[in-house]
C-alpha cells in the first residue's frame, strides 16, 4: 500500500458499529473489531474473548463476593477461549481473498449481513443469545442462596 495510507482500522467497541463499518467500507479500509455484532453489520473481522464466558465468570465473582470473599483476594481472570469471526461479503468487497487456513481456523463465517451463513450458525447464535440471557438468572439464583 502507499506509504502515507492507512492499511487497516481497529474499531473501538464504544463507536457506533453500523456507521463505522459503512465508513470503513466506503474508504476500502479493512475494519477489525472486538465484537461479533460489528462483523454482522459490515466489519471485516473480529477477534476477542467469548462474551458469554465473561458474563458467566462475572456471575461467579459476584456470587463469591456476596458470600463473603474479599475482592482483593480473588484472582484476575482473563479469557481462555477466543473467537475469530470473518465477514466474507466484506472480504470480497475489499479485494484479496481470505486464505483457506484462516477460514478453517475461524469460529464462524458471516456470508451476509442480513442472515446467518448456515443453519448451524443460526443455532450457534441462538445458543449464544440464550446463554447470555441466562446470566442474569444465574446472578439472581446466587443472590437467593
Helix content bin:
40-55%
Overall mean pLDDT score?
77
Shape: elongated
User: What's the arrangement of strands in the largest beta sheet?
Assistant: 1-2-3-4-5
| Number of DSSP E strands | 5
Detailed description of the structure:
By secondary structure, this protein is of the alpha/beta class. The chain has one domain. Helix content is 48%, strand content 13%. A five-stranded mixed beta sheet has the order 1-2-3-4-5. Strand 2, helix 2 (36-40) and strand 3 (45-49) form a beta-alpha-beta unit. Helix 3 (51-66) runs parallel beside helix 6. The longest helix is centred in the C-terminal third of the chain and has 26 residues, at 119-144. The radius of gyration is 18 Å and the shape is elongated. Residues 112-117 and 131-145 have low confidence and may be disordered.
In short:
By secondary structure, this protein is α/β, with parallel strands linked by helices. The chain has helices spanning 17-26, 36-40, 51-66, 88-94, 100-105, 119-144; strands spanning 9-10, 31-33, 45-49, 82-87, 108-110.
Structural features:
145 residues; alpha/beta; five-stranded mixed β-sheet; 6 helices; 5 strands; elongated; disordered C terminus
Set out the fold topology.
Layout: E1 9-10, H1 17-26, E2 31-33, H2 36-40, E3 45-49, H3 51-66, E4 82-87, H4 88-94, H5 100-105, E5 108-110, H6 119-144
Parallel strand pairs: 1-2, 2-3, 4-5
Antiparallel strand pairs: 3-4
Helix pairs in contact: 3-6
